[in-house]
Each structure stands twice: as C-alpha cells, then as structure tokens.
Amino acid sequence: MFTTLIRARSSLIVLRQQSILTTRHLHRSPIIKKPHTATIEILPTSHSTTSTTVGHESRQVQQQQKQQPPARRSKKDIIEFLYKNQQHPVPTGTPNTILTNCPHCIRIRKASFAATIDLSTGAYKCRTCHSKGSWNQFTKTLSKKLQVDQVDTNYQVYNSSDILGGNNDTGPRFSRPLEEIESYPSHVSSELKQTWLEQYKIDPAVLELYQVGVANYTNPTAYLEEQGEGSIESSTTECITFPQTTLTYTVGEKEEQEDEFKIETVRVKACSPDQPNDTLVLDPPTASESVSAGLFGYHTIPSDAEAVILTRREMDAMAAYQATGIPSISLPTANYQLQESVLPLVERFSKVYLWLDDDVDGQMAAERFAHKLGEPRCLLVNTNAEGDADGPRTAHQALMQDKNLLQMLQTARRLKHDEIMDFHDLREEVFREVMNPEQTAGVQSKDLPQLNAILKGHRPGELTILTGPTGSGKTTIISQLSLDYCTSGVPTLWGSFEIPNKRLAKKMLYQLSGKDLSKSPREFDIWADKFEQLPLYFLKFFSSTAIRDVLKACSHAVYAYDVRHIILDNLQFMLSQQGRSSLDRWELQDDAVAELRKFATEQDVHITLVVHPRKDANDLLDINSVFGSAKVTQEADNVVIIQKGETRRYLDIKKNRYDGTLGSVPYEFEADALKIRGLTEEEQQKFSQEKNTSFYTKFSPTGSSSMTRYPRKY
C-alpha cells in the first residue's frame, strides 16, 4: 500500500512537470531549446522536411569546402595528396619509404624536410621534432598548416601564354616526341666533349652527368633575318641542349608494374654551341602548369643531400659542381626569377648556396632569393671578393681563370639584419656600384636611347608618372617601353584597367615583331613563341578595382614571379565609381598614390602609373596639369608628359629625382609596328632648321633632345 502511494505521487509530479513544460512551450519560453533540423526530419509536415533538406545540403557543402583529406591509405592516394599540396618527396634507402616535410616542422624549423612516410601504412615519423602518427594525423596537420596560405589563391594574375591560349592541362607541349628529347645526350660526340674540355674546361664526365645533349632546332632570329617567308625547316641549326628535370613518383597501375621514383624532363633549353649562355629556343616555350617545375641538374642530386648550389646559368652550375663536388642547379631562365613553382624543389635542403653573378643585379637578386627561401639556410657566394677589376663575376669565369672555387664557397656569407650594418658591410656594395655604373643607373632602353641620356635608366624602387592628352598614345608608348625593358630581362606585370588584355597583348606582339603581323601570318607562331618566353604577366582586373586588391595581386606577383616592373593604366579607371563626391575622389586618389609609393619602396620594384591630365588637350601641359592634388607628382620620382606640338610630338621629362636632368625627346610614330622611334640625324637637322614656329622655340635649337641639369636635392 505504501509503495502504491509513492508510485501514484510520482506520477502526479511527472504530470505536473509535463504540464508546466507544455505551458512554457506554448508561451515560447526560451527555457526549451529548438531541436536541430536533423532530429525532426521524421515529422510529417512539408515545412519541416524542406528545412531538414536545406540544412542537410548546407552541411554537405560546408564539409566539401573543408576539403577533408582522403581516408584511404593507398600509395596512390598518399603520393597524390603530397604533390597536390606542393610537397615533393624523395626516396630513401629503405623500400616503400619516402622522405618529405614534417607537418609539425614546416614553416617553423629550419630542418623541416625530415619526415619519413611508410607507403604501406601511411605512418610517419620526424627525425627533427620526433613526432609520429598515422596518415590521417599527417594529412590533418599539414592541411591546417597550409590553410593559411591557401585562403585565397585567386590572385588575378596570369602570363602571356594564358592570353595566347598556349597553356594546357595535358602536360608539356614539346615540339617532338619525348623519347627523341631524352635521346639528345647520346648525340654528343667525343670530339665535342674534347672541344668543351679545351674551350670551356668542362669535363666530359660532368657533361654526361648533367645529360647535356645535341639536337637541331630552328633559330628564330636567323629565320626572320635571312629566310623571311622561306621554309622554316631549312633554317635549323645544331644546338646544345640543357634539360630541366624533376623527380616524380609513379605508382604501378598493374600488379606486375613496380612503384618507383623516376626523372622526368619537363623542358629543354637549346643554345648555340659557340654561345652556350645565350638561349635560342625553349622547348616548350612556357612551362606547363599541369606538371611539376624543373631545374637543370636536379636529377644529379642524391636523395640524402642536405646542401645545394643555385646558379644563374647552366655553365655556372656545371663549373661549381666540378670544382666543389656539391650538387649544383641553375635557374630556369637567366632573368633572375625564382618562381613559386620552383620553391618546393629546394625545400628539402638545409643549406642553399646562392652563387649568382658578382655584380649589382646579381647580388640584389641573391638577397631577394634569400628572403624567399629563408635567410637562416642561405649563404651568398662572392666570386670577386678580392675586388679585382678584371676578376671573375660567375662560377664558370672563375673556373676559366683557374681560381679556387672551393675557397670561394667556404667564405660564403649570410645576410645580416636589414637595420644593422657598418661600412664593412657596405664596402662591397659600393665597390660593385663603382665597377658597374651602368647597372647602378638602371636598365637601358634600346628603342629610345635618347631617353637614357635624360633619365639615365630604368631603376627599381621608383614611381614614374606618365600623362598626356587623350589620344596622345600613352598606352602605346608605355607598352613599348615596358616591352623594351622586359626583353632586357626585367620581369613585368601589366595592369590594364582601360583596354582588355587581349587587345594589349596584340599591340605588344606587333611592337615585338616591329610589323603588322596580319600581313605576315607565317611569322605569327615564331613571334608568339618569343612573346610567351618573356617574363611578362597580366592582372585580370578591369575598370574599377579597390587599391587593396590591386596591391594584393601585385604582392603575389612579386613573390611568385620576382616581378620588378609594374604598370598600372590608368589611375582614373582603376578608382572610378569609388568616391561619392569630388572631394572623396581626390582623397581616394591621394591615398592610392601613397600606397603605391610605399609599395614601390618596400618591395623594391618600379611602378609606372598612367594618369590623365586635367587641362584642355590644346594646351601644352606642365607638372601641375596632372589630375588630382599635388601629392601625385610629389610622391613620384619621375614625371613624363606626352606633349602635342604643332608638327611633332615629344616626351617632356618634367621631374627626375635620380640626378635632376630634365629635357625633351622628340619622336616619330610608326603605324605598322605601333611603335615610336627617336629622330634620325637627317630629321634632327631638318628639325633644327625650323626655328621660327612657336613649337620649336620651346625646344632645343640643336634639334636633339634638350637637357637641363639641375642640382640634385638630397
């Protein structure tokens, strides 16, 4: 009886609690939480079913966006995951075991390339931090580490090959079968090996190790100059070939096929036997994005090597290895570009010797590469540390002069802190500037040598303002000058906010060929290949774009492609529709110019900014005619104005911060080539005779470029 009363009382308490909860639910009290959509999918109402479906699909999308690592542990999955995340493993002495970056040490410790992975189980172990775990733990940790750098990979930058339609995802576009390319080393005769030993002091064994070959390629310059519209096949010449290789891991599709590492040739550089440092042909013209990047000599590096020498040219790499015995590789091109696609190949080394040209440009590039690769593991080699005016500048020149290359390597130096130095640190830099005055002045223009007499050259770290009336040819002139510097080895980034990139590329292709290619269609492929090989890149932005987005893309281009010249055409189109009032637009423009000035200085790149004037097109412009406030010209190092004279146009240099020289450069426009050229002697004589017009009284009476030198302000 007592037990029955207790049960009845308990039932009443439960009923009262349920009644209270029901009342609270009817009054929408926040005490009871709403159930998750996944828990009410069995309810019969259509509204609940729809909500459940939407919630389920949303979670699926979120899970897909997280890019969960593969759950399987097959060899193929392991290798694909590593290469997809820019990790390049190397073999070890143990079967079914590879060496790669440790997910815990990467980006933190110097010796991060220390994790061994068992391809049978996926288990890993690091010999640096002694961490170990399963394959799932490896993928999760590595993905989390790399997630910071992969937040936004759409940097709105592409190269000239993308515009011309040359890039594909099927692999390298070799001009001939890969089997034929891999047979090039067998074509090197014993007589040629002996000639190279006597002429270049390169041992035959080194040539064989680096797989230097011989093949016939078309010399584009010789064909265009001599053959014209003749047969391309008849203009082939024997070339020395330097293969660019990488290391790949192939998983056997069938049981009888073995899994193995193999050397893969991704590109071939063909040079003249008499001038092995001058590139005639690159096959293919551009590196494919669907395969790993390659380096000359990469296949010669043992799997357990911890140090490597990086040079500018192939001859320097072979000379450095022959004299020191340390594995040596060279840059893909001689343009001082250590592209982002190449960096994973160098991550495995704990010590990198940067043995570039011992001059101003070479040592500046070496310092940039050291910042990119990591200063603690980089050493800079000076070939001419003795300060001899006739001393060697490259490793191969040192070999030719019987210098002690091993001693040069032993005296390699590390970079010091940027903010702390003494004159001993500056002494070598000052000496290089004294010995290389042309490099200190900057890259010289080949199309307009008269411009060199005033501006002295194209220098990094400066901001140039180009302005002129509408229709005066601002885009045409700056595209020609940028192409001129680009052909001299200056990696260039173009930001065209006014005209599409395809139209700009067509204009530049005409300027490169110097003719209207529609009248010479058979030459298009040759000039297009030349154009693709240039270190030229384009921003995908068009019309109004925020300055922070532009600088973000520019920063990526500087890091990924070592861009040294950035052109933005033009400021008004880039900032259009971003200011609500005229006062806002002026302030916005001042802020943009200040950011560009800061970027040019910090990144040590030259920025050319096209700005529209604010005066009427019929008046001659001056430095105050640039649209906006005075801050635009105050921040600039150079101000160049295109003036429309009565009978001739000219470039009017109104500001030159380098040495204060000002002046004017008259020019003639060539319609077929879409280029300008300086006046010939006859045109200058005719020009000097016409002195009575109002236009020529503003010019030099001699007919040449007028120059006025002002004392430089420090």
UniProtKB/TrEMBL annotation:
SUPFAM superfamilies: DNA primase core, P-loop containing nucleoside triphosphate hydrolases. Gene3D superfamilies: 3.40.1360.10, P-loop containing nucleotide triphosphate hydrolases. Residues 437-683 form the SF4 helicase domain. InterPro entries: DNA_helicase_DnaB-like_C, P-loop_NTPase, TOPRIM_DnaG/twinkle, Twinkle-like. GO terms for molecular function: 5'-3' DNA helicase activity; ATP binding; single-stranded DNA binding. Residues 42-74 are annotated as: Disordered. One of its GO terms (biological process) is DNA replication. It holds the Pfam family AAA_25. This is SF4 helicase domain-containing protein.
